[in-house]
Structure formats: C-alpha cells, structure tokens
Amino acid sequence: MLEGRAMGAMGANCYLFSCAESKNAVVIDPGADGKRIYRWILEKGLKVEYILLTHGHIDHIGAVDELRELLGDVKVGIHEGDAGMLTDGKKNLSSYFGPGLALQKADLLLSDGQELMIGKEQLKVIATPGHSPGSVCFLCSDGLISGDTLFAGSIGRTDFPGGSMDQLLSGVKNKLLLLPENTRVFPGHGEETSIGEEKRDNPFLV
Fold first, then answer.
1. Per-residue pLDDT for 98 more than 90?
2. Which pLDDT belongs to residue 96?
3. How many domains does the chain have?
4. Going by C-beta distance under 8 Å and a sequence separation of 6 or more, which residues neighbour residue 70?
5. Domain residue limits at 157
6. What is the pLDDT of residue 99?
7. What b/e readout covers 65-77, taking b as 16+ CB neighbours within 10 angstroms?
C-alpha cells in the first residue's frame, strides 16, 4: 500500500510503501518534518526497513538523519550517482538556503533494475538520470514513484549541477512511457497523474 504526504516548505512528497500482511515498509524521500513522518509511521503500525531516496537534493533528504535516529535499525538507500550529495551541502543544494546540511553516508547503493522485497511486496529501481546524475524512480504494485523526473504536465529541472535534459528525456521516453498507460504516477511534487495522461498531454513529451 502506498500513501503520500507533502512535507516541508518546498512541499516535496514523502511516501510510505508497505506490505499489508507483514507491516514491513519503506519511507521514500523524507525531505523535512522527521517527527511528523515518524508519527505517521507509528499511526500505521509499520516496521520500516529502508529509507529510499529518488535523488539527493535537500528537499528530498532533509529529514533522513532525524528519521534514522528515531527509527533505529534502518538502512538508507540512494543511487551511487547521487551518493556523494548526502555528505556535501553544496552538492545537495542545502548551502543555497543557509548552512549546508551534511548527512551520514548511505548504507545501500541502488542500481538500475534492482528489486527489493518489502514483506511480500516488491519495489523495483528504475534509473532515470537527468534531474540529477543518480535520479531514480521506484515501481511498485500501486504505481510509479517518479521523484523529480516526471510530474503531472511537466518534467524535472535539469539546470542544477549534473543535470542533463537529454538524459532525462531519454529515461522518460525509453523507460517510463513504456509502462502500461494505466500506471499511476506519484511525483516528487504536486498531484498524482498516470503514464497515459502524460503521453497524451505533457507538453515536454508530445
């Protein structure tokens, strides 16, 4: 089961994906409000195994270490292309908003096609560089968590360090748009959409 809530001043969507039977879960992109996310987890009665990140920008990673401390035995995963962002305030863009935030290193380096079992549920990593060198999406039974790669009616910015419009469009067109049109898309910001809607209406893709 997948649920999302917008967190922090920048409104990045944080997601909880869980197995209904085992209550095992992952937190995806805890960008801010760590205590609020922790209360959400407790309310659902979930056992969080991983904190997974679609990319390494501050609005998606800001509460990682706070949650690490609150949850205890949990592994943090990010694609190797963005792993260095966790420990570098300039690379994760936090230094543009004040004192740079340097987090602990990741425990798990994600790779394209990697599959993680969350109880009886499966989560698949799809590498989609472009917004950042190590941007990924996560495919699960509920749909696609697209981070800042694909939005309703738009795509991610590529003007940050390491960004590439060519790479982003290639990943979207050659990977994401090949998914069934009824695949629900849960982006890093804004409202839910679907692969079919974006194929038909997204001005960057039509």
1. no
2. 86
3. 1
4. 34, 35, 38
5. 2-201
6. 86
7. bbbbebbeebebb
